[in-house]
Amino acid sequence: MLGLEVRGLSKRFGGLTVAEDIDFDLRPGDRKALIGPNGAGKSTFSNLVTGIIAPSSGTIRFDGSDIRSCNEAQRVKLGIAKTFQITNLFRELTVRENLRLPILERKGKGYRFFKRANSDTRIEAEVSALLEQFALAALADTKVADLAYGQQRLIELALTLALKPRVLILDEPAAGVPSSETHLIIDALERLPADLAVLIIEHDMDLVFRLASQIVVLVQGRILTEGTPAEIAANERVRELYLGGSHD
């Protein structure tokens, strides 16, 4: 099967089980959201899929191949990438310089000591395309440190897309973004390539219901239910556990 296939995935830390018997599929073009209350295990699940931590049991397959032995960097090269809740940018570099770095790394040109970093016209064309895609062209030569937080989140998303992933995991893409800037994130996510498989882990339910075609609800490390936004909104158990209470 093309895409990501998880079966029976579990993770235990001593006597504590944080993920239990999770089955999950993410195929090209999917727009799925993973929601759940505090401590549900959402970040743990994403860390298992991306290779940040190893599962206690279960399988993770990508395009039919078992990838459990692959570390995080190897999974990125296969096409599985993740953004994080906190931005991790080079604040003293410009937007353009930040975007150039993952492209150089992807093409194996990150350590060219005797060539100018901007000497490759194909790489510069790719940088320019990303700047346009994320409405950052006017800020291209501005230091990241001088930008609003919502704009920095856009840059992080553009950086991740520069790796050319086939599976994109967004860990709270709107975290810390003022409500007046949330539309920047939503607009950028709506412009993602149609064939990209996207998993959104998010507490902003307006964003989730606007972007996701399927929603998976995780509670205490187990999948409670999965369905369309309308089905999830109408599910009384979900409303009791999550939508009507606190969320992470």
TrEMBL record:
GO terms for cellular component: plasma membrane. Gene3D superfamilies: P-loop containing nucleotide triphosphate hydrolases (3.40.50.300). The keyword Ligase does not apply. Residues 4-245 form the ABC transporter domain. PROSITE patterns: ABC_TRANSPORTER_1, ABC_TRANSPORTER_2. This is Sulfate/thiosulfate import ATP-binding protein CysA. SMART domains: AAA. The keyword Nucleotide-binding applies. Its EC number is 3.6.3.25. InterPro entries: AAA+_ATPase, ABC_AA/LPS_Transport, ABC_transporter-like_ATP-bd, ABC_transporter-like_CS, BCA_ABC_TP_C, P-loop_NTPase.
